[in-house]
């Protein structure tokens, strides 16, 4: 029996982000909905044809989405909250885009209209909540269901797309999200209600869907249940048994490939292999150690799909190593597929489009298309013998060896320095109580000091100047002069409205990670390595390929210039090591923790240089610390230990009187409050405006003693908060924490806002702080 070559899903945004362009132009009313549908259809066809041409035996369909596959599933199942129902037919794009993006009366940029005119009135409807898909940087729209939710098959998207491919002569394997994972991801619209309790109501809709897929001609369906790699309770495990027993009983003539990814099955292995499905996909990149147990426990007639090519990173696969591992399994099992570890949604699309990458580094990489080529090659080697593809295997081995031996990857100076680091480097010289006294004496700030998180609006002019500079239309001198002007204006304005601790505004930064990556060694940047973040939004994560070092100071000149304009303290502003790591493609030849430590040392040097230049306050943002938490609780502590240590390593090179700030823009601290405490930042600013200060409970329960700036201004909305509102929030904060600990600041940076919102909001914020000072 041959080994079959398969894929679990392909990026839908298009190698040149064609879908992004089509979506945004439709949303803004420049093009019609028909044009959008046409582009989507072309993209799907091209994707199927390309995969077929690459030699895949199993090509997925249904992996296309206009916005998000979880939203597609919610709509398909009829889980459309009542607020969206008046906006159009349940299966319409009006409802779909309203759930994805919200609608605002009078704003034409929130939906896109039909060529034949837009029939629906629009109200003010918020978008569904968005959150990260497992431990990826992809965001999905969170399904919301209440006890009275009834399900019905509202769209037949997977069936339609299967037929569409079939019409092109391509027999695909439809992909759907499984019922248990979908329910486990759903949030409850009512307290005390558990979405999983509606499994019985949901299953008939899945039975109908599966039957329709079978009737349309599908023989296999890929049903994604990544929840099987999470910590599950007995109820959830029982739900899996119930669901798949029901499908086995009620849908005949259709085989299910149950797909798990992003981790090992662990203690859910028995549950998974015990389900009455025809196939099981396992992730052998994130959890290579599970292969033996899976092979041993899987019944002989279970088709195994082995995820051997990393679907989430950019490195070439060591094909010889995979063959050594898989060939013995292939010899023993008759039903075997090879596949990427997970959908390729999380990888950039095509390395061939990269014309500017260092050819040495480029030779080590594989993007989506190249990963499928690797799989095709592996298939040939397994089926026809390695000699049949000897040349290609030799080329792969040469790339792998070159990467291993390359001086670009290993920097002896970085390694020697890291080896000399001892625990003392991660500890400030004196405890917080002493530090804060020294800092207060120097800074001489009023109680409830006011500040901002760092960035000011990245206006059209700022972006235009950056683009012109990038294209060579504006020379360095001109660009520098422009940025200086922006910075000076920001400083003057902050002084004018009476903020206590100023920022330079970050006008020179394209992105809080890229800006640093571009100045550090060991990083590479792509031109077209886009990965979908959410909806039409894509990011181009840097690639960390080698040891990280900081050849020279990165931010000191800008800080020095800003500080030269004012007597008030200006914060040095840096991105922390965990966040830089988390938002990059990370090398896979050493533990993440080691890479993080290297970045931490580079940031530490920058902190020390800022101090030497005269900075009294340095902020190290760790926006991504929480999202780095592993999927399984047993792995949390280990992660938190090295993540916190990396932050401390970055922060602890300075004198006691230098004040270290950190910023985190999320609002769930309960799980990690001890780690936040252990970071020992002198001041932390966090997001709290939306939750109305509720999360401060975690800080007071922990008896958090360091200083803290709970955001009083929700920067995610153009709304200008009033002085009274912000005062109320501050009073509330002072009930959980001591007023002497508190700072006054917005929730996050202001780069996405407009000056016309920011100005009155910050004026009000300063007034709120002043009003409260009068009462303490
Ligand atoms: N200093 C950054 C800014 O103000 C922080 C942003 C973030 O944490 N997301 O934009
Ligand atoms: Zn933030």
From TrEMBL:
Against Pfam families, the record matches this protein to: Meth_synt_1, Meth_synt_2
Explain how, and how many, cofactor molecules are bound: Binds 1 zinc ion per subunit.
**CDD domains xrefs:** CIMS_C_terminal_like (cd03311), CIMS_N_terminal_like (cd03312)
Q: Which SUPFAM superfamilies match?
A: UROD/MetE-like (SSF51726)
Which residues of the sequence carry a binding annotation for L-methionine?
Answer: 453-455, 506, 621
What's its catalytic activity? 5-methyltetrahydropteroyltri-L-glutamate + L-homocysteine = tetrahydropteroyltri-L-glutamate + L-methionine
GO biological process per UniProt: methylation
Asked whether the keyword Transferase is assigned, the reply is yes
Name listed for the protein in its UniProt record:
5-methyltetrahydropteroyltriglutamate--homocysteine methyltransferase
Specify the species.
Sphingosinicella xenopeptidilytica
């Amino acid at each position: 029996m041959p080994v079959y070559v398969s894929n679990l899903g392909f990026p839908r945004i298009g190698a040149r982000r064609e879908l992004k362009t089509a979506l945004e132009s439709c949303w803004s009313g420049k093009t019609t909905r028909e044009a959008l549908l046409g582009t989507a259809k072309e993209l799907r066809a091209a994707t199927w044809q390309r995969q077929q041409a690459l030699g895949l035996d199993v090509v997925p369909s249904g992996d296309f989405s206009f916005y998000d596959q979880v939203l597609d599933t919610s709509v398909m199942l009829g889980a459309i909250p009542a607020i969206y129902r008046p906006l159009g037919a349940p299966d319409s794009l009006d409802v779909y885009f309203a759930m994805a993006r919200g609608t605002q009366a009078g704003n034409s940029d929130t939906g896109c209209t039909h060529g034949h005119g837009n029939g629906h009135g629009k109200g003010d409807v918020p978008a569904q909540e968005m959150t990260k898909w497992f431990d990826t940087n992809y965001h999905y729209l969170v399904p919301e269901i209440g006890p009275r939710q009834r399900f019905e098959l509202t769209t037949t998207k997977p069936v339609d797309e299967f037929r569409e491919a079939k019409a092109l002569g391509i027999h695909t394997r439809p992909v759907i999200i499984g019922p248990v994972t979908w329910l486990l991801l759903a949030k409850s619209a009512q307290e005390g209600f558990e979405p999983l309790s509606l499994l019985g109501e949901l299953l008939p809709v899945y039975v109908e869907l599966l039957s329709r897929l079978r009737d349309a001609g599908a023989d296999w369906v890929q049903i994604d249940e990544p929840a099987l790699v999470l910590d599950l309770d007995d109820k959830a495990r029982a739900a899996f048994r119930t669901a798949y027993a029901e499908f086995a009983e009620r849908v005949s003539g259709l085989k299910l490939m149950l797909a798990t990814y992003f981790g090992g099955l662990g203690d859910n292995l028995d549950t998974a292999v015990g389900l009455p499905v025809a196939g099981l996909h396992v992730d052998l990149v994130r959890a290579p150690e599970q292969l033996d147990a899976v092979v041993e426990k899987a019944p002989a007639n279970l088709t195994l799909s082995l995820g051997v090519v990393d679907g989430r990173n950019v490195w070439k696969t060591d094909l010889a190593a995979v063959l050594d591992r898989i060939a013995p399994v292939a010899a023993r099992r008759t039903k075997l597929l090879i596949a990427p570890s997970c959908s390729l949604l999380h990888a950039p699309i095509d390395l061939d489009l990269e014309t500017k990458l260092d050819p040495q580094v480029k030779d080590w990489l594989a993007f989506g298309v190249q990963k499928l080529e690797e799989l095709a090659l592996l298939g040939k080697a397994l089926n026809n013998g390695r000699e049949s593809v000897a040349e290609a295997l030799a080329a792969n081995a040469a790339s792998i060896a070159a990467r291993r031996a390359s001086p670009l990857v290993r920097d002896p100076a970085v390694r020697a320095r890291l080896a000399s680091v001892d625990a003392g480097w991660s500890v400030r010289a004196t405890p917080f109580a002493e530090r804060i006294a020294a800092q207060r004496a120097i800074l001489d700030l009023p109680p409830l000091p006011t500040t901002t998180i760092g960035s000011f609006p990245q206006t059209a002019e700022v972006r235009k100047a950056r683009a012109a500079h990038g294209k060579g239309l504006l020379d360095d001198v001109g660009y520098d002069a422009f940025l200086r002007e922006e910075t000076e204006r920001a400083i003057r304005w902050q002084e004018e409205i009476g903020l206590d601790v100023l920022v330079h505004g970050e006008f020179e930064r394209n992105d809080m990670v890229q800006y640093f990556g571009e100045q550090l060694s060991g990083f590479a940047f792509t031109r077209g390595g886009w990965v979908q973040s959410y909806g039409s939004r894509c990011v181009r994560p840097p690639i960390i390929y080698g040891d990280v070092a900081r050849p020279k100071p990165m931010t000191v000149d800008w800080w020095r210039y800003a500080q030269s304009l004012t007597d008030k303290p200006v914060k040095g502003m840096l991105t922390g090591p965990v966040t830089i790591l988390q938002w990059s493609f990370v090398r896979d030849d050493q533990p993440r923790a080691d890479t993080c430590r290297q970045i931490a040392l580079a940031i530490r040097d920058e902190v020390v240089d800022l101090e030497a230049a005269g900075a009294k306050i340095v902020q190290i943002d760790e926006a991504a610390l929480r999202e780095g938490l592993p999927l399984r609780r047993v792995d949390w502590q280990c992660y938190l230990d090295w993540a916190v240590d990396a932050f401390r390593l970055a922060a602890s090179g300075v004198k006691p009187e230098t004040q270290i700030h950190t910023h985190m823009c999320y609002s769930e601290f309960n799980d990690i409050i001890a780690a936040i405490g252990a970071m020992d930042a002198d001041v932390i600013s966090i997001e709290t405006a939306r939750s109305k200060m509720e999360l401060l409970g975690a800080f007071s329960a922990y008896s958090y003693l360091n200083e803290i700036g709970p955001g009083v201004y929700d920067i995610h909305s153009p709304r200008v908060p009033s002085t009274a509102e912000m005062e109320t929030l501050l009073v509330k904060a002072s009930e959980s924490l001591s007023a002497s600990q508190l700072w006054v600041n917005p929730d996050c940076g202001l780069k996405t806002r407009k000056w016309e919102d920011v100005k009155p909001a910050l004026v009000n914020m300063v007034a709120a702080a002043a009003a409260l000072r009068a009462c303490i």
